[in-house]
């Protein structure tokens, strides 16, 4: 089976042409289907389609076939049901985050796409809509014949979000949006930081941890079950910070909620004054403290962004039903420039920006060479002028911790030279801070990098120190720098 699928990817260009040719002629059989009856034809056609497409393309019969836009490799074998590009967790050997023994389906999809279109034209970046789960198991061949393709037209914004943030006529809804506009207008460098919500209903320690960054950052990200570990909800924690006068970014993942729950949560967050929402797919449950939990992944991050933009710009739910009032939101997304498939990373970023993301936060950057390659491609497509690209920076206390992260956290790449430098240092912790500061200085010289996003688990004092040592901000008198 695998050999046949590899063959299909190698011959993606010829198969793609054949597929389009047959699809264009399929409606000619409509009369036959009408006389035999669609239900009877479907009973005959669906098992044949399942067998043939399963063997050649690893098809999962989602009922909304997009093989021609995913390099003739079905993406539905993906453990997170990603329909718009890979998640950030592809392993260094190309293995899947969810099923490490399996090659990431998006490596095949990208390879096939490049065979179909080596020039990488804009059709590559078109968004694939969220799946209509009612169609699972249905024949798409029959849909092509009867031209009854896909249940209903998808509600929501029809065209890409194209306005440049600096040119946006409307008033900024948050301090982070103002900071992003200031970067676009004057190249003022943005600083954000990430903290995990507490394992407690007491909001006070969270507020105190956040207050360490007073005057040092433009916003504080509140993670949403990061690493698939349970904590206070990001919506609640972001609301706590908002009430305390601190600017949060509420992370909203697709792993734990379907499209009904996630829209309700974002509306609730907006009601509590939260404006910045970072859309992400989320780590698989196998990475966290509840590996027995059922992952949801009803949407991917691109479709989540599209739905939230529809709520904000058109005052409609994903169903098309009108809202009484649109939420005021500033939308962002994540990117991981440090793991394969690299060409697809930029296409995926463009889909997110088209879907409404106006700030992008990346995975940890320990490899400046890979980031420079990524930014070159980002600049070539003008994406840095449509969204603020904020690069993830962090530090770990020892070479052992760095190696553990590189080996156990899918999607994090740590070059051996960095680990060796920390290992050889007399004070590994201080050396780690120096590496982070040097990384920030280097990032400031890369055209298109709009800021840095500091990450480090319960390491607020060190992160505050890095911001000051890197010369990004001057601490206010009352800010404690350990
Ligand atoms: S690595 Fe991520 S994108 Fe690739 S198949 Fe696995 S879950 Fe899907």
Q: What do you see in this structure?
A:
By secondary structure, the protein is of the alpha/beta class. It folds into two domains: 2-146, no CATH class; 165-469, TIM Barrel (Alpha-Beta Barrel), CATH 3.20.20. The chain has helices spanning 2-10, 12-25, 30-36, 38-57, 105-116, 140-146, 175-186, 204-211, 234-243, 259-271, 301-314, 342-354, 368-380, 399-408, 416-424, 428-444, 460-469, and strands at 190-195, 219-222, 248-253, 276-280, 330-335, 359-364, 388-394, 449-455. Helix 13 (368-380) links the parallel strand 6 and strand 7. Helix 1 (2-10) runs parallel beside helix 5, helix 9 runs parallel beside helix 10 and helix 16 (428-444) packs across helix 17. The protein is globular. Iron/sulfur cluster is lined by residues 78-80, 82, 86-87, 89-90, 96-98, 104-106.
Secondary structure: elements and pairs:
Elements: H1 2-10, H2 12-25, H3 30-36, H4 38-57, H5 105-116, H6 140-146, H7 175-186, E1 190-195, H8 204-211, E2 219-222, H9 234-243, E3 248-253, H10 259-271, E4 276-280, H11 301-314, E5 330-335, H12 342-354, E6 359-364, H13 368-380, E7 388-394, H14 399-408, H15 416-424, H16 428-444, E8 449-455, H17 460-469
Parallel strand pairs: 1-2, 1-8, 2-3, 3-4, 4-5, 5-6, 6-7, 7-8
Helix pairs in contact: 1-5, 2-5, 9-10, 11-12, 14-15, 15-16, 16-17
The structure holds iron/sulfur cluster.
Iron/sulfur cluster (SF4) binds at residues 78-80, 82, 86-87, 89-90, 96-98, 104-106.
